[in-house]
Every structure is written in C-alpha cells, then in structure tokens.
NAD(P) transhydrogenase subunit beta (Adhaeribacter rhizoryzae), 468 residues
Amino acid sequence: MNQNILTIIIQLAYLVASVLFIVGIKMLGKTHTAREGNIYSAVAMFIAIVATLLVQEVLSYTEIFVTILIGSAVGTYVAKKVEMTQMPEMVGLFNGFGGLASVLVATSEYWRMAHDANIAMPVITGVTVVLSVIIGAVTFTGSMVAYGKLAGKINGNAITFSGQHPLNAILFLIMLVASIFLVLDPNNDIYMIAVLAIGLLLGILTVIPIGGADMPVVISLLNSYSGVAACFTGFVLNNQVLIIAGALVGASGIILTQIMCKAMNRSLVSVLLGGFGQGGSSAAAAGGGSDMQVKEVGVEEAAMIFDSASSVIIVPGYGMAVAQAQHIVREMTELLEKKNISVKFAIHPVAGRMPGHMNVLLAEANVPYDKLIEMENINDEFANTDVCLIIGANDVVNPAARTNPASPIYGMPILNADKARTVIISKRSMASGYAGIENELFGFPNALMLFGDAKATITKMVGELKEM
C-alpha cells in the first residue's frame, strides 16, 4: 500500500477514534447512557489499536498478537473473577497500570534516543519524557498504595510520620533539579534513574497519609494522573490519538476530583496533606458519643413500618457493598412498589470507595436508572418521606456536618436523611465511618437501629413483607 494512503487511513482512524472517545465520555456522565458510552469508548480504543498496528516498526506482528492475546486473557479472567465489592481496588489497579505503561514507553523512548549516536534528543522531547516518567511513576506507586488500602492489605487509616511533608518537598526539589539536568544532558543515565526512583517514592509518600474517607477523591485524582501521563507519552511518540485520549481522561478526572472535593467540603490540598481521622481529635469532635441513647428495631417491626408507609427513600453505602445486599434490596424495592409504595434511592457523590460506586452496584442489580436520584435533587424530599432506610452509609448522613463546628466533617454536604419521619439504619454495629467519628443520627428520636448483616436482615424483612 502506498505510504501516503496508509498515513491518511491511519489519521482518519485516529480522528474517528477521538470523536468516539469524546462522545463516550460525554455519555458516561448520565446513568442511563453510561453503558453505551462505555461501548463507544471501547470501540474507539479498538480502532486506535488497529490503526497503530498498521505501522510496524519495532516488533513483529507475531510478537504483537501474542502480547495482545496474553493481555486479553488476563483482563477477561480478572473481569470475570472480580466481585462488585472489589471494583474500587480494581479501578486503582487500572490507574496504576496506565501510569506504569506511560513510564515504560517514555523510558524506552529515552533509552533509544539517548544511546543512538545518530539521534539528537530535542529539548521539547526531553521535557515530555521527563513529565511522562514523573507523572506515570507517581501514578503507579500511588495507585498501588491506594489498592492496598482499599483491599485491606495496607492500613486504611492515614499513615503519617514526623517531617513527612518537608521530606516530600526535598525529594520533589531533588527530582526537579535532576529533571533539568536530564533535559540538558540526556546522555547521562544517572539523571533518568534519579527522576524515576524519586517519582516512584513520591507516589508512595503522597498516598499513605490519605485516609479511607478520602479514597473517592484519590481514585479520581490518580485516574486524572494516568490520563495526563498518557497525554505526555503521546507527545513523546508523536501519536495524536494518545494525546487526545490522555487529555480527555486527564481533564475529566480532575473535574471529577473537584466534584468529589466539593461534595466533601474539602480542598484538594487538604486531601493530599492527609485524610480524616489522623489523630484523637476526631472522636472528641463528635462529642457526647458515650451518652448517646439508641433505639433498636427488630426485623418484624421494621417490616411493619415499611408496610404502612407510602413513600420510602433508600440511602446505600459501602456497607451494602460489603454485604452484597444490592440484589435483595432490589427485590425489596419491587415488593414495596407492588404495595403501591413509592421507592427512590438517594445517591451521595462520595458514598462508597470510588466515584459512582453505588450507581455501579445498583445497576449491576438491575435497579432502574430513574430511581437513582442525586443528592441535590432528592434532599428536599426527605422531609415528606415516611421511611428512610440507610444501608451501611455513615458519614454522608451524619447531621454533625450541619450542626457541630468542631466535627472534622463540618460543612460537608450530606443527605437529609434525618428529616424523614422514620429513619431505619441497617448496620452491623455502632462502629464509626471512615471519618472516625460517631454518627449523631443514631441517637435521634426518629432513628431506629436494625443491627446485623444487611443482606441477612433485609432478606428476613422481605420474607415478612411477603406475608403481610
């Protein structure tokens, strides 16, 4: 095939892929179009890969297809094996692998150009290589730490030590100096080794002080980092579709990060400098926890309360994911609707362990999209609702965010669950949430505690409702 024609075909394929990426990401913004958006994005990636493979430079097609088969097999196996409750850590791994890919590509391109006497590395290429390596390295190790925290392999609390922030600042300055020398003298490998090593170390040091309450922010921020790293790698390779796709992921990730921070009433800087619950002040901020009087409700009584209601709002949280109760919750929803009881789901932006976690779980259980209502659109309805069922959510319904200036979550927008006529909280125990503080709602006069595993208790409650 004529080289000019091949180039035109590749550029047109990249253009189509870029448009599909944009459309796909746009559709991901709405629950009812998210699946189609995911398909569009997958098709775009397939087109981009095929177009890229038309240019055979380093590897043979045999080597390329063998690696594709291995990668596809691993991806298929992991996707089928992973539980929905493990989706947050899976997303963390994806972010990390994206960063690692950028590091490997940028490093190999540097090595090729720096050690070829016939190639002079332009300054702009050196700059993009350095940025790709730094951001990719931070993304990789940071994501691995986030994965470890989410999977319970690393302590999920904020891990801090004396002089942590000054140490990070010193390492960053050393890395910056090494980066400048690398751009000016690309033939000296010691500068690249220093940049790579410090980048990997900084990824660990910047994520370990972040607590579990901030994980949704961390996940979306690392997702943005992986996109930015891919974008710079696109400049290194002069690959337009990689630049566009990376820029889209980077921009959408940082926008989502800002939305998460706004939902928690926290700045991104405060998140990166350390998460909730680092010291003993959190418990003190809650105030009066030991004097709280709670009222417990049994399964039969709870079923009677639901049976006599005309409207119900369900607030899902990470506890629902842990108990894998989403399917029985959907069954209860259908049962209540047969009794002409209105049922809606109130979704807080940071409920769970990653952005959109509750939407994913409920969609997996085939809960209709139109029942998933965002916080700002449903908060006014709680005051006119007969029953609010809270399943494993804690900090996102804690009235301390409105009433207690000493609380670490004060000012955080929450769901107005406490304003419902009756609030039933399904929890295993009185344990605090990720913020490490007691939930004042548990002691409210309209609150009833339904203790036990969410799946088991709701299953029993469904059985009682069927008999009524």
